[in-house]
Amino acid sequence: MYIGDLTSIGLMSSAYQPNKENWVDAQYRKVGAGDVKTDIFGARSIVERWHHQPNAQDAGRAELDRGYQGCWVMAMGTNEAANQAVGGPVRSNERVDLIMKQIGNHPVLWLIVKTQKSRGPYASREMRKWNAALLDGCRRYPNMRVYDWLARSRTAGSSMTASISRAAATRNVASG
Asked: Do the domain assignments include residue 122?
């Protein structure tokens, strides 16, 4: 199950990627994932809701209620970092806890967040704070991993398929 925010829209949209063979679900299938489900919404946060749209907790709860049993990828955090920067009432570690406690013992891969912004709530320094909360979460949850997909793809010069393949091989997450 892949739950994402605005940063994931281009991974499953013909407006950004006309060839569906390059979409994220197809990439996961190429590395052995069976039934790939995605729930992506642009203004998504773990806690806050935009115009009554489901947040990440709602999306996760809906899948669990439908009986989903398997691996999870959480492509969340950009809005979490910005919400914290403007005084959001739920701390970053608590946001991670909300998702991890909901998912239970299933394997969860969180993607780090990065930005090139130097000012405002979406500035790089805010993203680094969120990433630190993710890394801290790994100490509390043995089924949680954090993957720096951007650094891996840039340093290795690899495609999304190779990045996902490495994540699957090193984390045993994408094979669920």
From this structure: yes
Spatial CB neighbours of 80, under 8 Å, sequence gap ≥ 6: 45, 46, 88, 92, 95, 130
- Rounded distance, CA 126 to CA 103, Å? 26
* pLDDT tens figures, 162-175: 333 333 333 334 33
Residue 176 is assigned to a structural domain of this protein: no
Rounded CA-CA distance 23/29 in Å is 10
The two three-digit tokens of residue 60, written as one number: 């996760």
What domain range includes position 38?
2-171
Tens digits of residue pLDDT in 22-77: 888 998 899 988 888 999 988 899 999 999 999 999 999 999 999 999 999 999 99
**53-61: long-range contacts, CB 8 A cutoff, minimum separation 24:** 56/3, 56/5, 56/99, 57/98, 57/99, 57/102, 59/3, 60/1, 60/3, 60/99, 60/102, 60/103, 61/102
Using an 8 Å Cβ cutoff, are 98 and 46 in contact?
Answer: yes
**Based on the structure, what is the number of domains in the chain?**
1
Answering whether pTM is above 0.85, one says: no
